[in-house]
Design brief:
Blueprint: H1 2-26, H2 29-32, H3 40-48, H4 58-95, H5 107-117, H6 126-133, E1 138-139, E2 149-150, H7 157-173, H8 175-186, H9 191-216
Antiparallel strand pairs: 1-2
Helix pairs in contact: 1-4, 3-4, 4-5, 5-7, 6-9, 7-8, 7-9, 8-9
Length: about 220
């Protein structure tokens, strides 16, 4: 439930930020010039501090009110998301802190994985968990010999995103994973194929961790 609430807050903040960006482009020049050269984060800070001046016409005043309202909404939703993440982290630490020890697994990834896994025995094998996550390879060849696989677009997309978040983190910061990527690249594998393999390995490792720790607890 906390994940759903956080996701809603993030979506609301993202929508408000995009609206701020669009309004700045269409704003009257006296307002638009205040945002010139700024990136989105700075735009939000500038917009949140705007003040209405009595000498402005209706268009300028309305634009400023809209920009300020949207920017403050974006900030409020981000703050709400951070507070919800703290609640999620507290639950993870009390339930399965071992997940947080895995490279690239933060509180949101851990919570997403736990929600999909649920309890010991619900998912009967690591292959089933990979299929649930949409990272199990799907043959793309016709005939008796399979040499190619295609992207699996089925399964729990939130779980799929969580696994790929771990993969991306490991590619950037874990030497062993970077060595693996270099080796598979030299073998002729594409970046997409390599990430697909890594996501499958992550699914296997997390499933085994969840089931084994639950069994021995």
């Amino acid at each position: 439930m906390l994940l759903a609430a956080r996701r809603s807050a993030i979506n609301a903040s993202t929508e408000a930020q995009l609206q701020v960006f669009s309004l700045v482009i269409a704003a009257p020049e006296p307002i638009r010039v205040r945002f010139r050269g700024q990136k989105l984060a700075a735009m939000l800070n500038t917009a949140a501090k705007l003040r209405v001046q009595s000498a402005w016409d209706v268009e300028t005043t309305s634009t400023v009110v809209a920009l300020r309202t949207l920017a403050r909404r974006a900030h409020a939703m981000l703050k709400e998301a951070r507070e919800l993440q703290k609640e999620i982290l507290a639950i993870i630490r009390g339930w399965r802190p071992d997940l947080l020890e895995e490279f690239g697994v933060g509180p949101i990834v851990a919570a997403t994985v736990l929600c999909a896994w649920s309890h010991p025995g619900r998912i009967h094998s690591e292959a089933a968990f990979a299929m649930l996550a949409g990272v199990a390879p799907i043959p793309a060849n016709s005939g008796q010999v399979t040499t190619r696989y295609r992207l699996n677009r089925y399964g729990d997309r939130q779980l799929n995103t969580a696994l790929h978040t771990v993969v991306q983190s490991r590619i950037q910061y874990q030497p062993a994973t970077r060595d693996y990527v270099a080796r598979r690249t030299a073998e002729g594998k594409t970046s997409r194929e390599i990430k697909r393999c890594l996501a499958r390995y992550v699914a296997r490792d997390l499933y085994r961790l969840l089931e084994n720790q639950a069994t021995t607890a």
